[in-house]
Amino acid sequence: MASEKRLRIKTLIMVLAMVVCAVTGDLLLKRGMSEAGAVQFSGPGLGHALVQMATSGMIWLGILFLLGFMASQMTVMSWADYSYVMPAGAFGYALQTLLAVLVLHETVSAKRWVGVLLICVGVVLVGQTKPRTSEAAESVEKAVASC
Amino acid sequence: MLTVLLLFVLICGSTGGEIAISHGAKKTGEPERMRPWELLVFIGRVMSNGWFLLGIPLMAASFFALLILFSWHPLSFVIPISALSYVVGALGAKYILREEVNAARWAGVFLVCAGVAMVAAG
C-alpha cells in the first residue's frame, strides 16, 4: 500500500515537471516561429527557415525546455504506462488557460473553459487507474516479433 | 494536401516516437533514486537504447511538421487536430505496448482529446 502511494506521488511530481517544461517550451517555440515568419515550402525557403530557426534565441530556449520535458517524460515512462502519462500530461492545456487568466489577465471564452473542465475530468479519470499495468518489456518484444 | 500529410506526420510521428521511447525506458529500468547524477546516467542509458534511436527520427519528423504547421496555420487549427494523438497513442499503448487500457482510462483519453480540441479552438 505504501509503495502504491509512493508510486503515485513520484509519478505526479514527474508529470508536473513534464507539464511545466512542455507549456514553457511550446510558448517559446510559437513566439520564435511567429517572429521568423511563414515557412515557404521550397528548397531556398526551407534553407532560409532553418537559418532563422538556428539563429533565434527564443527557439533555442524553447528547445531547451522541450529537452527538459523529454528527460522527465523518459524518466516517468520507465515505470508508468504510456497511456497513463500521455493524457495526464494534457493538464498543461488547463494550466496554460489558468496562467492566461491569472497572470496575463486575458479573457477566456466559455468554449475554452468547457475544454479545461473536460481535460480536468479526463485527467482525474485517468489518474484513478493504476499508473503501471504493463507486463515486463520482454512480452512486448515477443508481440512485436510475432507480427 | 500538404497540410493533411504534415498532420499525419505530426500525429503518427509523435505517438510512434513516444511509444518506442516508452518501451526503451521500460527496458532500461527505472532509476533507483531521483538524484541528478543518477537521472543523468539513466537518461544516458535510455539514449543508447535501440528503441530510443528508433523513436528520435519519428519525433524529429513530427517536430518539423509542427514547426511548419505553426508557421502556416493558427494554433487554434493545429492543436485541435493534433489532439487526435491521444486516441492514436492509447491504441498504440493497448496493442503495441500491451498496456491495460480499461474503461476509465478510455473515457479519460476521449475527454482529454475533446477538451484539448475545445481549449485550442476556443
Give a concise summary.
The complex is a heterodimer of chains A (147) and B (122). Chain A is mainly α and 147 residues long.
Write the layout of secondary structure elements.
The complex is a heterodimer of chains A (147) and B (122).
Chain A: H1 2-36, H2 43-54, H3 57-77, H4 82-89, H5 91-102, H6 110-128, H7 137-146
Chain B: H1 2-28, H2 36-47, H3 50-72, H4 75-82, H5 85-95, H6 103-121
Q: Would you give an account of this structure?
A:
The complex is a heterodimer of chains A (147) and B (122). With 147 residues, chain A is an all-alpha fold. Chain A has one domain (2-146). Helix content of chain A is 80%, strand content 0%. The longest helix of chain A has 35 residues, at 2-36. Chain A is globular and about 55 Å long. The mean pLDDT of chain A is 83. Helices cover 82% and strands 0% of the residues of chain B. Chain B contains 6 helices and no strands. Chain B starts with a helix and ends with a helix. Chain B has one domain. Chain B is mostly helical. Chain B has helices at residues 2-28, 36-47, 50-72, 75-82, 85-95, 103-121. At the A-B interface, helix 1, helix 3, helix 4, helix 5 and helix 6 of A face helix 1, helix 2, helix 3, helix 5 and helix 6 of B.
> Any idea what the shape of chain B is?
globular
Which band does the percent of strand residues of chain A land in?
under 5%
State the helical fraction of chain A. over 70%
Helix amount of chain B: over 70%
Number of domains of chain B: 1
Q: Report the sheet with the most strands of chain A, covering strand number, pairing sense and barrel closure.
A: none
The first-to-last residue Cα distance of chain B is: 25 Å
Structure summary, number of beta strands of chain A: 0
How widely separated are the two ends of chain A?
37 Å
- Kindly give the count of domains of chain A: 1
Shape of chain A: globular
| Count of helical stretches of chain B | 6
Overall pLDDT confidence of chain B: 91
